[in-house]
Amino acid sequence: MTIELSVILATDRFDTIRDVVRHLNAQTARERLELVVVTPSAFEVEETGFGGVRVVESDAEAIDVASLRAAGVNAASAPAVLLAETHSFPAPDSLERLIERHRDSWVAVGQAICNGNPETMRSWTNLFLDYGPWTDPSAGGEMRELPTHNSSFKRAELLACGEQLPELLRYSAGITAVLRARGGRLYLEPRARTFHVNVSRATSWVVERSAAGRAYAASRAEGWPAWRRAVYACGSPLIPLVRGRRVLRDIRRTGRSAELLPGILPALAAGLALSALGELAGYALGPGGASRLIGEMELRRMPHVRRGDL
Question: Cα dist. 66→11, 119, 125, 258, 271 in Å?
C-alpha cells in the first residue's frame, strides 16, 4: 500500500511518545502512514502496523523541537508530512481526513483542536490562547494561517525553504507567510480532530505562559534595531486587550460561552498578563532560558498536567 502521510515526532526516548504511537496505531489510515521519529539518541521503536517506520538520529539539541522536526521533514518519504506532538492524540479517522484533503492542491491542512484535559480553566485558557482560531468545533475551510503544531504540509513546499526551515517552523506565522507568498492555500479540515493536552499544573502554567511570551517576542524581534524593540516593549501592556478580545470571540464561535463564561475570566486575565510580561522581557532582554523551558514542556508534557486531569 502506498504511503501517503509521514507523521513526524520529535522526542528524547520511546516512553515519551508511547501514548501517541498507540493512538497513531489506531488510525484507519495506519497502513498508509510512515512514522518518522527524530531524536538526539537513536532507539528502537516497538512493533507497529504502520506502512513504514524511520528513526532519525539528529545532532540538534533535544529540546530544539523545530530543528528536530526539520530533520524529520528531510528524512520523510511521503508527499505530505504531519508535525505531530507528544501530547496530542488524533481521533481514529483524523489522519485519513488529512490524506483525503491533501489529494487536492492545498499546501497545508490543519486539524480542529479539541481539549484533551478539559478539567481546569487553566487548560481551557491555554487552548484558546494557543489554538483559538482552530479550536473544535469549527466550520473549517480555507484559512489565512494554520498552527505549525498538529498541521500537515506538502513536503515539497517545506523542503523548498532550505536552511531556513527550522526557524520557519518555530511559529506558525513564519511558515504560513512563506507558503502564502508562493501562492499556496491553507485548509482547516473540521472532520480531522486531535485532542491536545494542555499545561494545567499551577506552577508549570505560570512558567509556561510567561516563557512562551518571552520566546515568541525574542524570536520575532531577532535582528530588529534597538528602537523597534523598545517600541514593542512599551506596547506590550496592550497585548491582553487585543488577545483577550480574540479569545472571547473564539469562545463564542465554538458555542462554549455558557460552559466557560464567566468562569474562565480569572485564568484568562492571568494568562494574558503573564504572556504580556513575557513578551516585554523578550523584546527588551532577549530569550534568556525561555526557549529551553518551552522545549522541555513541549517534549515532556505530562509532568506539567494537574494530577487527575487525564
Answer: 11, 29, 24, 37, 24
The amino acid that residue 232 corresponds to is Y
| C-alpha cell of residue 188 | 482547516
* Residues 144, 177: Cα–Cα separation, whole Å: 9
Q: CA 153, CA 175: separation in Å to the nearest integer? A: 10
Q: Is 283 exposed, middle or buried (0-12, 13-18, 19+ CB in 10 A)?
A: buried
Write down the pLDDT at residue 45.
87
The structure's pTM equals 0.95
Which residues are bridge partners to 197 per DSSP? none
- Tell me the C-alpha to C-alpha distance, in Å, between residue 32 and each of 87, 162, 186, 275: 22, 27, 22, 40
Three cell numbers, residue 48: 507497529
pLDDT, averaged per 10 consecutive residues of the chain (310 residues), comes to 94 94 96 95 84 88 82 97 98 98 97 98 98 97 96 98 94 92 97 98 97 93 93 92 96 98 98 96 94 91 92
Query: In this predicted structure, what is the pLDDT of residue 85?
Result: 97
User: Which grid cell is 69?
Assistant: 522536526
Q: How far apart are the first and last CA of the chain?
A: 35
